[in-house]
């Protein structure tokens, strides 16, 4: 499991949430365990918390925390800061904006887990997100080692479409609020500023891609090597809002399959998606 011994603030933050939810410190039992497989996260760990107290319904939480290694914490803290802002400010604002206009939850963008608490103190490398454990509602992850099929892809793209649609509506109806979102730095730019870990990983991927090419595929080899030599510049160009205008929107920032969970009918037909 993710070791929480390096997180002296963990229990204090958790206790604040439990008191808000009506539990009594000292009377409720709090059990912690692994929240995910070790290979599921690159920049964070997950701790599953099960809370029980007589007279209360059991509460199961998923706590996202920085990794124990100090260097990795330093690399990830900018991403935590952005994600905490998203849960504390952006997502509540988008939800309120939709409800003001009569958008029902089944029709709009509400596909996110409930957040019980989120905080980040970058200068101390402290951060924590306390979320509902969607597995308690039947959600589960796709096997990241398997290609994603069309139905799951359509669900995720539909969810992203709703997010982008709300962005356009916000841009048109509350332009001053939309302009304020520019202070949310793109996650890719944050990663680039925290060292060469991510770029080196992409360079390694380029090497592997070149290794799959046949001798006669020189055109593709040159293109991959050109990309490899200019990775930072290409990433910055790809995430630039200026290049996206006039269609710049609020984006997920890290929409890969491990950041999505799905529910299914009894015959394994996929029903819904939630994004983390």
Automatic annotation (TrEMBL):
It holds the Pfam family EcKL. It comes from the Eukaryota. Residues 129-273 form the CHK kinase-like domain. This is CHK kinase-like domain-containing protein.
């Amino acid at each position: 499991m993710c070791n929480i011994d390096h997180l002296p603030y963990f229990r204090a933050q958790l206790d604040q949430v439990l008191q808000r939810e009506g539990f009594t410190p000292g009377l409720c039992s709090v059990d912690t365990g692994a929240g995910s497989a070790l290979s599921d996260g690159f920049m964070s760990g997950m701790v599953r918390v099960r809370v029980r107290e007589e007279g209360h319904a059991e509460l199961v939480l998923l706590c996202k925390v920085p990794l124990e290694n100090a260097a990795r914490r330093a690399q990830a803290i900018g991403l935590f800061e952005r994600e905490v802002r998203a849960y504390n400010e952006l997502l509540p604002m988008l939800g309120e904006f939709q409800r003001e206009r009569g958008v029902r939850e089944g029709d709009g963008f509400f596909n996110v887990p409930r957040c019980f608490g989120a905080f980040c103190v970058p200068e101390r490398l402290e951060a924590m997100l306390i979320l509902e454990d969607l597995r308690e509602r039947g959600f589960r992850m796709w096997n990241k080692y398997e290609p994603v099929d069309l139905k799951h892809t359509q669900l995720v793209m539909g969810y992203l479409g709703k997010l982008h649609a709300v962005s356009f509506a916000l841009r048109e109806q509350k332009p001053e609020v939309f302009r304020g979102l520019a202070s949310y730095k793109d996650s890719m730019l944050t990663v680039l500023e925290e060292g060469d870990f991510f770029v080196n990983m992409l360079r390694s991927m380029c090497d592997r891609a070149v290794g799959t090419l046949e001798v006669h595929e020189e055109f593709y080899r040159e293109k991959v090597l050109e990309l490899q030599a200019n990775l930072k510049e290409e990433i910055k160009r790809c995430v630039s809002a200026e290049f996206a205008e006039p269609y710049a929107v609020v984006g997920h920032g890290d929409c890969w399959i491990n950041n999505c969970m799905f529910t299914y009918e009894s015959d394994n037909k996929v029903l819904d998606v939630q994004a983390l």
